[in-house]
Amino acid sequence: MKLEVVEKYDSIIQQSDLVSRDLSWLKFNERVLDQSKKMHRSVFEKLKFLAITASNLDEFFMIRVGSLYNYLDYEKERVDYSGLREEPFKTKLMNESHTFHTDQHEHFSEVIMSELQEQGVILCNLSKLTEKEQEKVHEYFVKAIYPMLTPMVYDGYRTFPILMNKLLVFGVVTTSPGDRQDMRKMSFVQIPANIPRFFEIEREDSLLLVPIEEVIRENIVSLFRNVEIEGISLFRITRNGDFTLEESEDMDANFLEEVKRKLMERKSGRVVRIEIEEGYSKWMMNSLLERWNLKMDSVFLIKRTSMIDFTGLWQIVGNKKFRERLPQIPAPVKPLSYQDEGVADIFDVLKEKDILLHHPYNNIDSILDLIEKASEDPDVMAIKMTIYRLAKESRITKALLKAAENGKHVSVLFEVKARFDEENNIREAKKLQKAGCFVIYGISHLKTHTKLLLIVKRDGGEITRFVHLGSGNYNEDTARLYTDIGLMTTNEVLANDVSEFFNVITGHSMPSQYQNLITAPRDMRNQLIEYIEKEAENARNGLPSGVFIKVNSLEDSEMIYALYRASQSGVTIKLIVRGICCIRPGRVGLSENIEVLSIVGDFLEHSRIYYFHNNGDTKTYAGSADMMVRSFDKRLEALFKVESTLLEKQLMNILAYNLKDNVNSYVMQEDGTYLAKHPIGGEPEFNVHREFFKLDVESVMQVRLVD
């Protein structure tokens, strides 16, 4: 891109009061990549974060760039928060993506490769192997790989094959002996996803990893006999994976079939990115660009010293030989409000007090035990829950199946629009349906993102409702890696609210109001803005005020402008936003009183907490909702109010600890960039992902957010 064009676009972007969602997303991935550059991390940790950036970038192109192409291809107008229209924004976005791509690959080639070698792990091609090792590789190719490869030729007699999303593909240009040059043919050989990415060869003092593409490249001539190979190009495509089920007019006719059809469309969606090795066939590339209606800015070149698709690095990270070289996560500690975890009967405890869980510092087993115990308890009459994502071998599904077998009423809403988990959710939901559970496959025009559990139990002559509300999924795998909040309670006010909300989800009900829940799509945006405006009013009247919020993403413009108005009224606003953040902090006359931090480290920050000082009569909520248009308008979401003093102090302490962190924190600047936060003037390191394992009640009860 020409310098004057870059400067023009950057000038427009900086004039906007809002930061582009997509450009902000790329800044988030830069922070993840920065974790791979941290000197204190082992090379295996660095590989993990590099692999995460690759997975993130795949999803970014599938969803965000895919969405942009939906506008471009159908000539729909769109003005980004940056102020740029479709084509200029695409130019800017691709330019930023190329910069990030270059940074990724230079880090891998110049840092990761040498550090791996120091650890005795060597990535190499076949020329580095002994003759005996080469024979072993050749035998592996003949027996395990060759039968799985299918060359697909494209010429005047055969249609262009459907190349699969995110698979490595060899494009082979061939001619028959004696043919003219214009008789060239293209063939494609896809590398199946179920072949390990590296062939491993153990030596006495090292582990050699031969990329599978090098094994195939060495032997690809066996697939093209008696023809001349003019060129071999290794590439990978990314397809548009963005579809909006809510926009389908005939959704109610057969919702499940619509989801399945859309999943199939992902496999043949328009191509939005080509990653290709240097030295590729220009004739083939021109053909691909013309067929897929792409420009060269969608082509990402990879040097032979690097590799295509860093997600393959998970094979190294997950190798049992290196398990001890990854940092060991401390064992979970008992919740401050449930010190007798594992000893006392959880039903009895919840009748006496509420329990706040903070994962992964507290174990998810308390929730799983509650559901499993309920499935067996003869006094439990009903179990209702919403499910967004589950573990592959889910204890939740097994417990619900057991409950159904034991004659309990089980109602489950499975959100089959949970992106990339649709097929797993459909499969698990059908298991429950066959067992006699009442299963709802989502709500056609909304995505159910709220996390709710309701257990109804006979208790002598009375009925007790046990409730769990959370910010995270009922997924025991991700609960070890994601920071999340969960509240378990028998509080009658919350139980009534949750019961009413389930009636909305499963039936046709519109409650007039909830007492301790804020729900979307109806009330959440307006209620949160009302709380922000109350803080602004208090500040104007000289009263103490403060807004402290922790979310994954902040994108909703109405919320952003409410925060701007509060800042201009003198309200202290501190935001902890892990990923996308479209607000501009610290802009003179607009947002001087707004600070934004992002925490990126060993755990994925996933909890959402909203704190409003309210002149000392604090309002503290947690739940599943980010501050995004989709959360407020297109999802069923819930935030729950925490009233117990200890539990509210715990949520406040989470905010305070996040603000104090100087190991995993990045401070957002007014221009949308981020600076890593470091200990200043000899102050000790404060790593939020370690400090939560050390909490005690006394220190938590002393926390204050507003002086």
UniProtKB/TrEMBL annotation:
Every copy of the Polyphosphate kinase C-terminal domain together lies at: 345-509, 517-679
Keyword ATP-binding among record annotations: yes
Q: Which GO terms describe its biological process?
A: polyphosphate biosynthetic process
Per UniProt, Mg(2+) binds at 389, 419
An annotated GO cellular component of this protein is: polyphosphate kinase complex
Indicate the family of this protein. Belongs to the polyphosphate kinase 1 (PPK1) family.
- According to UniProt, the name of this protein is Polyphosphate kinase
The species this protein was found in: Algoriphagus antarcticus
| Name of the gene this protein is made from | ppk
